[in-house]
Amino acid sequence: MKIATSHSCQPDTLSAVQESCRQLRHRLAQDPDILFVHWSVLYPGEELRKLLADQFPDCRIHGASSCLGGMTEEGVFSQDGRGMVLMGLADPQGAYGVAGGKLGANTRESAADIVLEAINNAGRPGEMPDLVRISSAPGYEDDIITGIETVLGPETPIIGGSAADNQVRGEWELITHRQHLRQGLVITVFYPSTTLSFAFHNGYSPTQAKGRITKGAGRVIEQIDHQPAALVYNDWTGGIISSALENQGSVLADTTLYPLGRVVGEIGGVPYFTLAHPDRVTAGQGLSLFADIKEGDEIILMRGTVETLISRAGRVAQAALQANRLTPEEISGAMVIYCAGCMLTVKDRIDEVSQSLNSALGGKPFLGAFTFGEQGCFPSGENRHANLMISAIVFGPTR
Question: Which of 72, 93, 256, 397 might form a disulfide with 5, Cβ 3.0–4.6 angstroms?
């Protein structure tokens, strides 16, 4: 396997595609078998798709828009909200399949159909993939994971990130080599010639504040311990959303360092958590989130800092290496998902995140996106959707 990345911040889509594809061809020294691309929405998705398909007509493409730009081993690429990053994989002994589609009335059925189409596109019907990578419009992620698991079972790791725009206006986009989508899903199935390792973590610690959801459904908590959820949360955090309690405003930027956690499992007696990011105070003083909840769930207030959000990226990459006892010298490259909310919180120091990853991965090529939701596989094998998370996939030695 050979992996290379490229990038551009050129002001127009044609120039950006030409520059990044020229870089990629030079570094890869051949056309890729599959291309992954993340871009800010200032580059129109359908134009981008057509230009990339013209550049690489025989290549599968998996693409999702990313908040403000993206990152590679060479740094973070975003100028005035504009940036594009590409990763090409040349792996003639492996197989990869890509499929996409709109999400209809039954998201689970749509996801099941799309993953089967991706498997057929890889030329491996009836064969379980080593890993499934997903990109989707925000809001559907939990049902997408359930739908994929109805086909593959819970053992196949599912890792990905939700498409993002620059200002949470619903302008996110997705592409394959054949399609441009908005409220859709793109799936790639991996049958690589190399081993794969991965990790899925967050940069937060639990506090002493906790309670139980006594009323709520979907992505809204109405009550915690029979009290209005927004009031309870505001009390837990020392009043950080006080200004939004009367006008039901957005609290997304205020709550990034204080998400709500739920225990997924334990390793060595130490619990690990899935996170939900509070988004808005509702009319009934509830809290809307970027992840699904259920009545009866126990929730714990989590606490993060800018320092932990920066350092955690490299530690997640190290965990992915350690999962298969790999050294950076043994890998071909990596794919990283870094939450857009975390990125915006550490924005003035985002280059340090790229440097942290670069150090952990020994300078090997990596592709990074800034997403509006993260999907990954926890240490005990649970595929989950969460917020404010970081994931890494590393491509190890040839099998």
Answer: 72
Predicted confidence (pLDDT) per residue in 271-288, tens digit: 899 999 999 999 899 999
Mean pLDDT (whole number) for 59-75: 98
C-alpha torsion sign, points 399, 333, 63, 160: positive
Using CA atoms of 315, 317, 318, 319 in order, give the dihedral in degrees to the nearest 10.
90
Amino acid residing at 324: N
Q: Check: CB of residue 205 under 8 Å from CB of residue 122.
A: no
**Cα 302 from Cα 48, distance rounded (Å):** 39
Q: What ranges do the domains of the chain cover?
A: 2-201+308-398, 205-303
The strand ranges marked E within 125-269 are 131-136, 158-162, 174-176, 180-181, 184-191, 194-202, 205-217, 220-224, 227-228, 260-267
Percent of the chain beyond pLDDT 70?
A: 100
Helices 45-55 and 13-28: crossing angle, nearest 10°? 40
pLDDT value of residue 247: 82
CA–CA gap between residue 39 and residue 41 (Å, rounded): 6
Return all residues near 313 (Cβ < 8 A) that are at least 6 apart.
336, 338, 353, 356, 357, 390
